[in-house]
Amino acid sequence: MRGGRFLLLGVVALIALMPLFAPWSKTFLVLAIAKGLAVLGIVVLLRAGQVSFGHALFFAASAYVAAFAARLLGGGELLTLLVIGALGSGVLGLLVGLFVVRYRYIFFGMLNLAFSMVFYAVLEKFYHYTGGSDGLILSRPSVLGIGLERLPFEYTLFYVALATAAVLGWLVHRYLNSAPGRALAAIKTNETRLEYLGISARGTLLVAYVISAMLAGVGGTLAAVMQGLVTPEYAYWVRSGEFVFIAILGGAGHVLGAFAGALVYEGVRMYLAVLAADMWQLLLGVVLLVIVLFASEGLVGLWHRISGRFAPAGREAS
Amino acid sequence: MMGTSNPLRPLGRAFLAGVCALGIGTAGAADKPEQIDIGISAFLSGPASVFGEPARAAAEIMAERINANGGIHGVPVNLSFIDEGAGSAHLLSEYRRLVQSEDYDVMFASISSGNCLKVAPLAEDLEVINLMWDCGTQRVFEEGDYNYVFRTQANATPEMLASVLYLLKTHPDFETIAVVNQDYAWGRDSWNIFRTALQTLKPDVEVVAEFFPKFGTPDFSTEITRLLAMRPDVVLSTSWGGDLDNFVRQAKQRGLDERSTLVLPLAESSLERLGEDMPTGAIVGARGDHYYAHPGYADDEKFNEFVSSFREKTGNVPIYSAFHMVQAFDALQAAYDRAIEANGGEWPDTEALADAFEGLSFRGATSEITIRPADHQGLEDQMLGTAKQVEGKDIAELCDITVFPAEAITTPAGEDSTEWLKGLSADLLDTDVTTYPGCH
Amino acid sequence: MDLIIFTLAVLDGLAYASQVFMVAVGMTLIFGVMRILNIAHGGFYAIGAYLSAGIGLAIASAGLSPWLHLPALVIGAAMAGGVLGLVIERFVLRYIYVKEEVLQLLVTFAIFMILEDVQRLVFGVQPYAASSLVDAMGTINVLGIPYNAYQVLLLPGVAVLTLVGLRWFLHHTLLGHLITATAEDREAATAMGVNANRVFLLTFTIGTVLAALGGAFAAPTTAVQLGMGADMIVLSFAVVVTAGLGQVEGAAVTAVLIGLGRSFAIYLMPELDVLMPYFIMMLVLLVRPNGLFGTVQTRKI
């Protein structure tokens, strides 16, 4: 897969340099990366065969925690906010996870949905604290103590997001291939056998759950800082559905798939909304249908199929 | 073209300065563009498209008329629409793209108050002129200072205050009030303002119930049952669109309108749809003095021409969002007129155009509006009337139409609305207003 | 809370429960038999509502009696739901049964998005209202409060009829037995000679018709507007999961719980009313992890 690796590096380099040619693409790319991180969280849980339909909960929770923190700190520091946001969603992930890991499949999915919708309702109702549906404004945080103007700040944010995605993606890849990660996969194939081995399925799933919550949290804070505003929309069920969709689009088991899927999804969505302001939902639905029906292995699967034609025999499995 | 974040800009400025020094050009001037690109954000999908679609029709009518007359000082206008229904993230990125990549000259945004709050700082950052053409939040100008953002209409404070004043004029002795508002920022904010104003002007009023049903709730039965049991004198609802239609219909079916007076500050936009279901005696507001059958402009050529073109194009009567769009276009035309005159005939650049908006007076389809130089807030008169069903007519008529002057009911520049409302005196009830006797 | 208020709350709760049941029972059935959580259900509900509103308006402008709306909306919904259900199952869903559950769900999500835009393209953005039937049925006075007869008599009646009808169908007819058997164990049923494809087609169509009926009956009481499908979906999810997989009776009980929960919340703590379905779902699942009437699903190893 040598050729594949170089091509991949090429694509990443292209993305890294895109804002220099198209300045407006920074927003789009940072949001795609933020969503990609949340999708990465879904991918982690998918390894255990469980789908969460409420991950927007963590995406939103960290965004709001970051917004409140920024207020308390009088602006705050970019990296600090990312850490605080991730911790916030991690704690919430622990609390929710303790309840939710007792359930499987549809119940797991729906309970997550329930929690996210409760949070959504709370965000809208407690108007005086959360700003209701108008949301909270998040002013530009400083970076390493320096207050930046809009343009340099956006560039910095973009490269920070890219770096964060790379690091977290690599870490998740290592996690999934480690012992706890394989135990996670065993939950999907044969949970009883796992318990017989003396490994607690619930414990393993809980660890994975908290990790996935924190991933979604980092994504949420990034999105919030980029947009400068957090709204209850962040927690709505359609957003959770999007995360699941992108996970499948990218390729259900793959780390890279999460980001590839997010980029393609955001790109398609943006262009459809521009080209056909009246019908973008319909066209997006059709696109999604086509993908599920004809390319259900997702983009990564497609990639393997295509590059498999060019590779010599005896490829390593990834 | 107009302001972009082009790193070569300082060079351009230096060049221009040099050219000016040679007496060839004038400061504040720019090249006359081939067309004026206007980006407009509105809800083209989802429940709020009941406002966005009529506004889009109005925008197209205005653009056609401007271009048919040769454009703005010879330059035609070109419109592009952004669907707010696709989400704020989409709005913000599309907004940026139009301004940064496509060099759009002026932006009109938005319908949603939430979106206005996000767009205003962005417009300021991008240094593009942004006209807030429809959103109601008073927070934008009360919480920040802007150079490039202007509002060509009023905001929630005068709209709600006028409703309070009309209620007090027509029902001076009511004692109890309940509210049924949509559970989101507008529903909460508008109630806050209304309540503060009411309790300042009439402290003995008792609020017996506050309901904030979910946005898009199809069914208000339980809330209506409670209201029927509690019998408040007045029931307020600032809801709009399908929610308002539902509430009014369900209230009328069960006779709530007979037990309580309904105050509906946004109901002008539902008059045609509700038809015979609008209860007689309900107080109807219009977010400005917008009404397709406005008695004050029955003989006015501009007004009549707009109403008939709109009816021809869409088959419906225009509602306030359409009128607001007309105001935005008229403001733009007036600003260009003023800037070009100040420039001695030269085409203005962004800064010169922004200067022209401050203190600008212009007329939409109805009354004259002024943009306050201090905070860029528009001063727009507010109109309310009482609904009445008339035999043989499809749409209810409005009686006792009263127009409240903008100056008296808009928060002074630099003050916070809630604080100002708390300091109101009862003399406000005696302000000179324009009334139109009879029903129209 | 005195007896009068209590009675009023119960009455309001039951009226709301009828609407919830009508919407959610179709989704419950589909989920029980096909194990697919049909997100597009909201779209069928909305289309049923738009059609019903259109029919109602046509009847009104033709000057006919508003009572005609009742049979007309049933027929209209049945036809629309039937056609849509048949077409979508045959040409889209059939190809994804072999795929993972998540993919099946996403296909229904895609169909939902398509239907949302179809609604707008076909029906436009203005809300539709066709309430002459409700007006014709008038109000009845309960403890001094006028109630719409449509909401407290007709809708609960229709809901009860649907429940009884479905129960009879599932337990006392051959087709119903085939559906129940396939729901219990698809493989065993197929081994016995049941044509699973036909059963799925039938179930999906019934489910879609029920969704459209739910919307059609809701239309006279409410302005039919864009986005009404999306709100219904989440509520239906809560019912389906709380009821226990495929349990029609469970759906009825859950609907009543949610209806009463919401109405009492509005009387006592109005701000919590939107949270009630979720609280109820969480509470039920705490006590009975497989839903109210659900049974433990054995997994094949």
Automatic annotation (TrEMBL), chain C:
<dbReference type="GO" id="GO:0005886">
    <property type="term" value="C:plasma membrane"/>
</dbReference>
<keyword id="KW-0812">Transmembrane</keyword>
<protein>
    <submittedName>
        <fullName>High-affinity branched-chain amino acid transport system permease protein LivH</fullName>
    </submittedName>
</protein>
<keyword id="KW-1133">Transmembrane helix</keyword>
<dbReference type="GO" id="GO:0022857">
    <property type="term" value="F:transmembrane transporter activity"/>
</dbReference>
<feature type="transmembrane region" description="Helical">
    <location>
        <begin position="149"/>
        <end position="170"/>
    </location>
</feature>
<keyword id="KW-0472">Membrane</keyword>
<keyword id="KW-0813">Transport</keyword>
<feature type="transmembrane region" description="Helical">
    <location>
        <begin position="199"/>
        <end position="219"/>
    </location>
</feature>
<dbReference type="Pfam" id="PF02653">
    <property type="entry name" value="BPD_transp_2"/>
</dbReference>
<dbReference type="InterPro" id="IPR052157">
    <property type="entry name" value="BCAA_transport_permease"/>
</dbReference>
<feature type="transmembrane region" description="Helical">
    <location>
        <begin position="70"/>
        <end position="93"/>
    </location>
</feature>
<feature type="transmembrane region" description="Helical">
    <location>
        <begin position="44"/>
        <end position="64"/>
    </location>
</feature>
<comment type="similarity">
    <text>Belongs to the binding-protein-dependent transport system permease family. LivHM subfamily.</text>
</comment>
<dbReference type="InterPro" id="IPR001851">
    <property type="entry name" value="ABC_transp_permease"/>
</dbReference>
<feature type="transmembrane region" description="Helical">
    <location>
        <begin position="275"/>
        <end position="296"/>
    </location>
</feature>
<keyword id="KW-1003">Cell membrane</keyword>
<dbReference type="GO" id="GO:0006865">
    <property type="term" value="P:amino acid transport"/>
</dbReference>
<feature type="transmembrane region" description="Helical">
    <location>
        <begin position="16"/>
        <end position="37"/>
    </location>
</feature>
<keyword id="KW-0029">Amino-acid transport</keyword>
